[in-house]
Fold each of these.
Amino acid sequence: MCTLEQRSNLFILTLTGNDDEHRLSPTLIAAILSALRQVKSVATSGSVLITNSQGRFFSNGLDLPWALAAGCRVKALSRLSQMVESLRFVVAELVSLPIPTISVVQGHAAAAGFVLALSHDYMLMREDRGVLYMSEIDLGGCLPDYFTVLFRAKIGSGLARRDILLRGQKVKGREAVEMGIVDGVWGCEQSLRVAAMELAERLGSRKWDGEVYQKMRKGLYPKLCIVVGAVEGRILPAKL
């Protein structure tokens, strides 16, 4: 599951459970979405969101075991589609938040977990344990449209996108910096979390206008906003 903590102007969203892979099940996706909407409703000028996790995983992607437990291929694909579409709303909310957002990847971020991390404005990563991996090519699954658009929006190098999406390259900390995916890497969990807090405090001290920040972010990623439904006049459902 996840928790949301407010420390002054900082909001800290944590995927909880040290032994958990933080697979994005319908329940966890709904909890994250609820937390983001709570942040959006009370955020003020100077607010910042940090998303992190406990244990060795940031998130190991969608809850494929839950999908496969449906008992047949048709039902499994239906469950998978349900999770893909639910996560679309999470990406839409992250793109629409009127505050800066930071993801803290202290462990593995695979497939949809990578997508969740990449949907933030800033990505910080642990050097020795952090791994980014898009498993779809190895599992024989096609990418949802908004996954592809997100990678094109957030990762400038075509070669990097090729290696991640078409080779299934497992990207570690230093490589992620060199490929332009993350903003920096740190050698241990403590230093990583301290760096995230320091970045959040620097960003929050700027006290940017939330409406302006949101509009400028959407202007940077117009195609992404369209495919996830984060466009003016489009109202996302109150509940999944």
Note: The two ends are 16 Å apart (CA to CA).
Amino acid sequence: MNGRADFQEPNAEVPRPIPFIGADYIPTEEERRVFAECNDESFWFRSVPLAATSMLITQGLISKGILSSHPKYGSIPKLIFACIMGYFAGKLSYVKTCQEKFKNLENSPLGEALRSGQARRSSPPGHYSRKSKYDSNVSGQSSFVTSPAADNIERETLPHYEPIPFSASMNESTPTGITDHIAQGRNFS
């Protein structure tokens, strides 16, 4: 023994490690069923209605003259574009619903990763993640462990920019330096 007592309750639940979900992850049968269900429902209940609605609105705008039709192809290119945008908008609008379905799965590594908020992790466990040097850093300390000399070099070489308040931007009361004295000075009559 190391001189200390390690106490653990006999019925205590040991938290399972969060699985790494990467590109090589093979979904379970239940997850495949939910993927197919999400794909089918997002198509029929979101993509088709949004694509049809966007095409009808586009055709109405073309008929009223608000949008112009192509001289050679007519309204077809704009209708195809509206259909594609409606399709993708429908798919994207169903993402949250599909995530909730995966979160409700009991024995799913993907559902566990979504529940714990670790689905966006890009590196496997044990790797350091370095924040961008452009991220705001309240404490002034980097989340990536470096030597103090490297921190000093980084502070000296990178310019320090102060944020400019929105009210200091150009508006009507700020002179721009552009004048029309040339146009006023010449008279071509």
Note: The radius of gyration is 29 Å.
Amino acid sequence: MSHCSSRALTLLSSVFGACGLLLVGIAVSTDYWLYMEEGTVSPQNQTTEVKMALHAGLWRVCFFAGREKGRCVASEYFLEPEINLVTENTENILKTVRTATPFPMVSLFLVFTAFVISNIGHIRPQRTILAFVSGIFFILSGLSLVVGLVLYISSINDEVMNRPSSSEQYFHYRYGWSFAFAASSFLLKEVLV
């Protein structure tokens, strides 16, 4: 009985580790962490006009409405003179979320290292120290990722709170599926240990 449950735990930890690695890898490499839309509201008939809509990741910003529709630019170059963002707060949001970028990258490196060490430990069960070391790497990876997620959320919330309110303008934002993948990866990594 204990041999079967040990084998099941080994398989389960490998599956969770692979899923955590895959999810954080997809999250880091895609650009759907945040959706933002801003525009104007006509006071006469309460209709809205979208001035700018974009989705942003850690590396790239893509516009899907407004003057820049269909254009994608690298994050460090989003302040090029020919790109017209509606408000300064939108620019500030895109600047401040970059502070969170290193943490998911470190998490990706740590979870990859943990996954490799864990699988070597499964292949050579006499080396029990590898399971302990891989557990430490999984925990560090999860902590790095959650710090990045908290920084990402707080930097957006800080800028949204500083937006001037106006009845003629609207601003909406929501987190995308890449962000959800990163959060799911954190949960998998912490359940693994």
Note: The mean pLDDT is 83.
